[in-house]
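Thread: Newbie trying to understand structure tokens

Hi all, I'm a second-year student working on a class project, and my supervisor (Dr. K.) asked me to get a predicted structure for one chain before our next meeting. I've only ever worked with sequences, so writing a 3D structure as a token string is new to me. If someone could post the tokens and maybe explain what I'm looking at, I'd be very grateful. Here's the chain:
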Amino acid sequence: MCIKKFRKLETTKRLLRMCMMCSTVVMISAIIYSYINNANDVFITVIEKCFELSAICVGFYVWKAKNENIRKYKEGGEADDA
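---
Reply by user tm_fold:
Sure, no problem. This is what the structure looks like when written as tokens:
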């Protein structure tokens, strides 16, 4: 029987997940509220800003991962199997 070790998530992965979850919750609630109350003007802006926040978080995470991989391969490290 194979027992997997519980790995702690890195801080940036936690931040990325929290950002994506918060953006998703805000977008869904804004869509539902605007559908119920026919208020479109404000919530279009809210949804737009949530997409921008998610894009910034993903961009930062990709940039950080790229720089870590460059540094790792310059030092002669091998790729992880995880």
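A couple of things are worth pointing out once you decode it. Helices lie at 11-37, 41-74. The chain has a mean pLDDT of 79. Feel free to ask follow-ups in this thread.
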